[in-house]
């Protein structure tokens, strides 16, 4: 289904979408990426609650790689994966701050 959605706009290469298809993919999959970020933050907080006393671990180094892995199934275009990974990290960071506010007001 995901591959079908990404080929409806035109016949540009899967690994190098045109400007229109790029924008369409971000629109289609952006919400999914953000939801994955929220679930990721909640999962880390649930498994390692002591980390909630620290800043969000979702932005750099290994966590940035994990963010990319969480959306790698959504596109073969690395530019789209990067943009969606940024959505994952932003949503995870936002949710992390919310969880910190609940546990450490």
Features:
67% helix; 105 residues; 4 helices; mainly alpha
Short description:
The chain has helices at 2-6, 19-47, 62-71, 78-103. It is mainly α and 105 residues long.
Question: Could you characterize the architecture of this molecule?
Answer:
The protein is mainly alpha-helical and 105 residues long. It has one domain (17-103). It is built from four helices and no strands. The protein has helices at residues 2-6, 19-47, 62-71, 78-103. The longest helix has 29 residues, at 19-47. The chain is elongated and about 50 Å long. It starts with a helix and ends with a helix. The mean pLDDT is 86.
The major beta sheet can be summarized as: none
The helix/strand order is HHHH
Number of domains: 1
The dominant shape is elongated
**How much is the average pLDDT?**
86
Content-based structural category: mainly alpha
**Gyration radius from CA atoms, angstroms:** 15 Å
How far is the N terminus from the C terminus? Answer: 42 Å
| Helical content (DSSP H or I, runs of 4+) | 55-70%
Number of strands: 0
Show unreliable segments: none
- Counting DSSP H or I runs of 4 or more residues, the number of helices is 4
Strand content: under 5%
Secondary structure topology:
Blueprint: H1 2-6, H2 19-47, H3 62-71, H4 78-103
Helix pairs in contact: 2-4, 3-4
